[in-house]
Amino acid sequence: MANVYDLLNKQTNLKSEAEALDAEQDNEISTIASVLAGIGSGLFKIPEGFVSLGASLMDLGADTNKAAEVEKYFAKINPFDEAAEATAAGKITELIVNLAVPGGIAFKAGSGLAKSAITAKKAGKYLSPTGQAGKNINKGIQKSLKDVKLRGWDRAGELGAGALAGGVAEGIFVGDVEDAGTFGDLLGGPTQLEREMEGDTYDPAQEIINRVKFGVEGA
């Protein structure tokens, strides 16, 4: 038969288990909230990257410090930043969104333009009719360009153009390339980013070069 001490000890253990379960559920909810905030913050980082690049170019030519002002401004108006930075999952989500949205759109646009250019060139090379009949045929060719399948080097050219466009977009629209990092930072090499050490003055040229490195690696 259980005594009073055992009953009290059992109640204490049950209470501790319940508190641990509640804490685990709260932590799961906070992680989900941080991931959702990461999506919103990642979208905010896209215009921030574009404006930051413009500010760095201005700083390079006019010896100002507009980039720091831009960073403070976006940190102030971004309502998702703090929640996104609260967990590792939120930070990763923020970076993925910041990379994937502009990079994916640019890749699709770049590869689409390359495909249209290649198929148009092939169509013009194989058939160059003149007169009204030629105009009608050319209209038909333009209408059917989207159905032309590319092969071999044509496909490689399409993918290369898409990759180049995606890399350019990543170099322009990523909010903070130094925070995102590169494989060069991990393995060394030409894409390793130059980071400001404590006490160093802000260097807009370094910021622009880092964006170029990031875009090259992205491509």
Please summarize what this structure is.
The protein is mainly alpha-helical and 219 residues long. The chain contains nine helices and no strands. It is globular.
Number of domains: 1
Which regions are unreliable across 5 or more consecutive residues at pLDDT < 50?
none
Number of strands: 0
Q: Give Rg in angstroms.
A: 27 Å
Spatial shape:
globular
Q: What is the residue-mean pLDDT, rounded to a whole number?
A: 75
State which percent range the strand residues make up: under 5%
Please estimate the helix content. over 70%
Secondary-structure content class: mainly alpha
Order of helices and strands: HHHHHHHHH
> What composes the largest sheet?
none
Number of helices, counting only DSSP H or I runs of 4 residues or more: 9
> What is the CA-CA span between the terminal residues?
73 Å
SSE map:
Layout: H1 4-62, H2 66-77, H3 81-84, H4 88-126, H5 131-144, H6 153-173, H7 177-180, H8 183-187, H9 204-218
Pick out its properties:
globular; 9 helices; mainly alpha; 219 residues
